[in-house]
TrEMBL record:
PANTHER family: DIGUANYLATE CYCLASE DGCM-RELATED, REGULATORY COMPONENTS OF SENSORY TRANSDUCTION SYSTEM. This is diguanylate cyclase. It comes from the Bacteria. PROSITE patterns: GGDEF. CDD domains: GGDEF, PDC1_DGC_like, PDC2_DGC_like. It is a multi-pass membrane protein. InterPro entries: dCache_1 (IPR033479), Diguanylate_Cyclase (IPR050469), GGDEF_dom (IPR000160), Nucleotide_cyclase (IPR029787), Rev_trsase/Diguanyl_cyclase (IPR043128), Sensor-like_sf (IPR029151). Its EC number is 2.7.7.65. It comes from Herbaspirillum frisingense. It is an enzyme of class 2 (transferase). Keywords: Cell membrane, Membrane, Transmembrane, Transmembrane helix.
């Protein structure tokens, strides 16, 4: 596999692990966010529904009392002020208080504020100037009036008053009939609602007075909230919801409020965000830990995977490098195994193989072939005179000169051994071989390498050639051909060296005079 594709595989593995982790994280974050929104929406809906139920309960509570007040008004109108009439009114009031649980007490006051009737067993003669009394004295309306919460003069309990004006037959102010409504009635009812640890229910008069708060705080009954933010919402809408951080306890609450239909009252249900999100927070923690563990497992597994991929890549890359290096080494070795280390012409082993191959080919093609053996003359003396190192340099020069002559495609110049060279010349007949042999002798002479030990004063060679006119079906033996060339070389030595002798194989044809040699 190519290197870049291997690296890409490792990068893809890493990217895959990172993308999987990111997708899991994003999905989890998205799901947590959805759950968060749903929890808040649900809480807002719950608070709104609770507010609706509580306003209906408040309307119902006051309506029942109002009906009693109207009944008392009627009794006062028709029963008259005589003793029997007063008794009937009293009985009605007693029965009503017994029948309506939220109704703590009924009182009737005349136009001077003097108590003239009660649902109690005994009538205390006292005067009042409470706000509801003053309200009815001032305003000639047929509306029931809801007073601020107060402590009952009789029981000492917190009550809220509901009152109606009594008129003389001419319509002038004749006094008030007032009902005390027990606030514990609301408490008992509100306690049934689950509003969490920090939730609250606020029940009050529209003009901004708290009648009751669940849970009850020491200061909350009668508290003036006309300047509060809630009051702002109350004056502007029939119902609604908002989120607010309480300046009193620093708790963030979602508040739903609603006005009563029949009376100037409101109910606000506030649920603390922490309470609402308690479940959500717990679930987020648990899921968060689970996701974290999952990511650790994926990360660990992914890392192992990436490491394995990377390991495999490294191994494959090392294998590629090793293979390339091996191929390079192999080529070098191959080249080295074919070449002679000193002279850089082909070596003996290559020569042997090449000659066998050429002879086999020759048998098929029928072409001519020449083999030329070359020996440096008096080389022992050269070594003795100039040293072995100089001898080596001389051999290199001679080899290069031979190479320069046998330049045709397919010509092979080889070192046969010591100071002896051999040339295989395919498709080369006797005439060509003669010419080349002569050029070889000339080429070495042209080097003009001084040689004191030589009669001619310079390095020369002797050449022996053997040529096959046509090799087809000749079944020539390599050894025979070499011997033939060697014999020619021997003759060249014998005849004085620095010359070439040629045999035309298999006959020994002497070519004693190669043209242009001397
Ligand atoms: N410097 C060097 N000398 C070599 C090498 N191979 C063979 N020789 C020397 O070549 C010489 C060959 O000597 P001989 O075989 O007696 O022949 P010659 O002295 O050339 O005499 P003729 O061939 O009769 O002219 C020996 O002294 C070898 O040591 C080589 O690789 N380097």
């Amino acid at each position: 596999m190519p290197e870049h594709r291997i690296q890409r595989a490792s990068r893809t593995a890493k990217l895959f692990v990172v993308v999987v982790c990111l997708i899991i994280l994003l999905l989890e974050a998205w799901s947590a966010w959805r759950a968060y929104e749903m929890a808040l929406d649900e809480a807002t809906r719950d608070a709104s529904n609770m507010a609706l139920a509580l306003t209906q309960q408040a309307d119902q509570t006051f309506k029942e009392v109002d009906v009693v007040l109207l009944g008392v008004q009627e009794h006062l109108d028709y029963d008259g002020t005589k003793a029997a009439g007063r008794q009937r009114t009293h009985d009605f009031m007693v029965t009503s208080v017994a029948a309506v649980p939220q109704l703590a007490m009924l009182m009737v006051y005349d136009e001077t504020g003097l108590a003239i009737g009660t649902s109690q067993a005994t009538l205390e003669h006292r005067y009042i100037q409470d706000d509801y009394f003053l309200h009815h004295q001032r305003l000639r309306t047929n509306q029931a009036y809801l007073g601020k919460p107060m402590r009952s003069r009789v029981s000492g309990q917190w009550v809220v008053t509901m009152s109606r004006r009594i008129n003389h037959p001419d319509g002038s102010f004749a006094g008030v009939v007032v009902a005390d409504i027990d606030l514990s009635h609301f408490q008992r009812y509100y306690e049934q609602f689950a509003i969490g640890r920090n939730g609250a229910i606020l029940f009050g008069l529209n003009e901004g007075t708290v009648i009751y708060r669940q849970p009850l705080l020491s200061y909350s009954i009668g508290l003036d909230i006309s300047k509060s933010i809630l009051q702002g919402y109350l004056t502007n809408a029939e119902q609604g919801s908002f989120e607010l951080r309480s300046p009193r306890d620093d708790i963030v609450r979602i508040t739903s409020f609603r006005h009563c239909n029949l009376y100037p009252l409101f109910v606000a249900v506030a649920l603390a965000k922490d309470d609402i999100l308690e479940d959500w927070t717990r679930r987020v923690w648990i899921r968060g830990i689970a996701v974290l563990l999952l990511l650790i497992v994926i990360g660990y597994g992914g890392n192992r995977l990436v490491a394995q991929v990377a390991g495999r890549e490294t191994a494959e890359m090392e294998a590629i490098t090793a293979r390339t290096e091996l191929e390079r080494l192999y080529r070098t070795l191959e080249a080295q195994s074919q070449k002679d280390g000193l002279t850089d012409v082909f070596n003996r082993r290559y020569f042997d193989a090449a000659l066998t191959a050429e002879l086999a080919r020759l048998n098929r093609s029928g072409e001519s072939l020449s083999l030329i053996m070359v020996d440096v003359d008096h080389f022992k003396r050269y070594n003795d005179t100039y040293g072995h190192a100089a001898g080596d340099i001389c051999l290199k020069q001679v080899a290069a000169a031979l190479n320069g002559v046998a330049r045709r495609q397919g010509d092979i110049v080889a070192r046969y051994g010591g100071e002896e060279f051999a040339l295989i010349l395919p498709n080369c007949n006797a005439a060509s071989a003669a010419a080349i042999s002569g050029r070889l002798v000339q080429a070495v002479r042209a080097l003009r390498i001084p040689h004191e030990g030589s009669p001619v004063g310079q390095v020369t060679i002797s050449v022996g050639a053997a040529s096959l006119a046509s090799g087809k079906g000749a079944q020539v033996d390599a050894r025979d051909l070499i011997d033939s060339a060697d014999a020619a070389l021997y003759l060249a030595k014998e005849q004085g060296r620095d010359r070439a002798i040629q045999h035309e194989y298999p006959r020994l044809t002497l070519l004693p005079d190669i043209p242009g040699l001397r």
